[in-house]
Amino acid sequence: MAQAVGVSLTTQAKESTLHPKFIRDEDERPKVAYDQFSSEIPVISLARIDESGDKRAEVCRRIVAACEDWGIFQVVDHGVHPMVVEGMTRLAREFFALPDHEKLRFDMSGGKKGGFIVSSHLQGEVVQDWREIVTYFSYPITARDYSRWPDKPVEWRAVTEGYSQLVMELGCKLLEILSEAMGLERDGLSKACVEMDQKIVVNFYPKCPQPDLTLGLKRHTDPGLITLLLQDQVGGLQATRDAGNTWITVQPIQGAFVVNLGDFAHYLSNGRFKNADHQAVVNSKCSRLSIATFQNPAPDAKVYPLKLREGEKAVMEEAITFSEMYKRKMSNDLELARLKKLANEKKLQEDSKNPKFENKVEPCKVLEEILA
Ligand SMILES: O=C(O)CCC(=O)C(=O)O
Ligand SMILES: [Fe+2]
Q1: Which of 71, 97, 152, 326 could bridge across to 274 with cysteines, CB 3.0–4.6 Å?
Q2: Count of beta carbons in the 10 Å neighbourhood of residue 339
Q3: Terminal CA-to-CA distance of the chain, rounded, Å?
Q4: Do residues 219 and 28 make contact, with C-beta atoms less than 8 angstroms apart?
Q5: CA atoms within 13 A on the CB side of 268
Q6: 177, exposed or middle or buried, with CB in 10 Å at 0-12, 13-18, 19+?
Q7: Which ligand is nearest to the CA of 250?
Q8: Closest to 287 measured CA to CA, from 9, 36, 3, 1
Q9: Rounded to the nearest whole angstrom, what is the distance from the C-alpha of residue 364 to the centroid of ligand 1?
Q10: If 0-12 CB within 10 Å is exposed, 13-18 middle and 19+ buried, where does residue 133 land?
Q11: What angle do CA 147, 153, 157 make, to 5 degrees?
Q12: How is residue 107 annotated by DSSP?
């Protein structure tokens, strides 16, 4: 199969087999079906959260328990109006349905800040993710580069600006609760961010001819403070608490936000709050859309536990900046992927030198799948 250059994934998805660049090692492939939903992740209503008293205390208690358990919870009655959610979702679907040349006008390969790309904006990936994204920086407002925001559909800018603002308000409300839970002032976490940045990534996962061999988005933790994720009703978001041995698929709930805690929240809480370990799987029946809003600290914000409880030792030796933390995370990920690739290549070479290999009735599975 020829390598498609300058072609969106939506177009490549029409092939009947998967291009080898999307094929994952066996240990990384999906273990649980995209639609085998679990009810493990709590769904929490934020109705009347602003009133003080028992209601707020009960909501806080449930959120904190979820943060300690999975680093994930879902929120409903969150104040982002259903019409705004519907508008954002509709425009995102319309964007991905545009012809390739329209989407590629915003191609962000080569390090551009924002726009459209297949798989990921990170360079040097060994295996590609089965997704297209369109991404833009929405806060601080001075960071907005409208030349990198799609101009089709025509309402894109107005609708996405409104959406970004409402999600920012919801994010700040959740940070107040988490700050209180950590024994800080209500503005403790937002102060630790220096300035609140926001980046939106709209993920589109086309139907996939061989979904069992690939991932929509590989296993990861989000780097920042919290992510507010909107997903459609298809399903595909999965979480693990044991480094990828077992997985659950998060139940989609119309209009709910999935809240994922990121690495920054994990370190600031001295490891008390989990950083959600998650991935997205795809399927052969229908495409899937999710909209991730990352609430991140400023690049020079300090990464270090904000408060140590009696007898606790800090989970990090020294304070670093958020941008340094991010850089180290990315280079670790790339290095791990590179080492894994080298190990696989070495194994293939050794197997082919081994005389027993030639007599085997079953060919080497990895090789067979690479050539499929
Ligand atoms: O599509 C999903 O459900 C997950 C998206 C995600 O984890 C991300 O964009 O970081
Ligand atoms: Fe994520």
Answers
A1: 71
A2: 11
A3: 9
A4: yes
A5: 30
A6: buried
A7: 1
A8: 9
A9: 33
A10: buried
A11: 50
A12: B
Say which DSSP state 345 is in: H
Helices (H) and strands (E) in the chain, counts: 10, 15
Strands (E) in 29-100, as ranges, are 37-38, 43-45, 72-76
Q: Which three-class secondary structure string do you get for 169-199?
A: HHHHHHHHHHHHHCCCCCCHHHHHCCCCEEE
Q: What is the pLDDT of residue 1?
A: 42
- Beta-carbon contacts of 85 under 8 Å, excluding residues fewer than 6 positions away, are 163, 230, 255
The CA radius of gyration of the chain, in Å to the nearest whole number, is 21
Q: Choose which residue among 205, 238, 251, 278 to substitute to test ligand 1 binding: the one with the highest number of ligand atoms within 8 A of its C-beta.
A: 278
Tokens for 2?
Answer: 């020829």
Nearest ligand 1 atom to the CA of 216 is 1
Q: Is 9:118 a contact under the CB 8 Å cutoff?
A: yes
ipTM for the predicted complex comes to 0.99
232-265 pLDDT, tens digit per residue, is 999 999 999 999 999 999 999 999 999 999 999 9
* 18-57 tens-digit pLDDT: 999 999 999 999 999 999 999 999 999 999 888 777 888 8
Cα dihedral across residues 54, 55, 57, 62: positive or negative: positive
What distance in Å separates the CA atoms of residue 330 and residue 168, rounded to the nearest whole number?
25
Residues with CB under 6 A from ligand 1: 201, 203, 217, 222, 229, 231, 236-237, 278, 280, 290, 292
Which ligand sits closest to the CA of 235? 1
Looking at residue 251, the DSSP 8-state letter turns out to be: P
CB distance 121 to 112 below 8 Å = no
Instruction: Please provide residue 311's backbone torsions phi and psi, each rounded to the nearest 5 degrees.
Output: 75, 0
Asked whether the beta carbons of 132 and 96 are under 8 A apart, the reply is: yes
The domain spans of the chain are 9-302
Which CATH number describes the domain made up of 9-302? 2.60.120.330
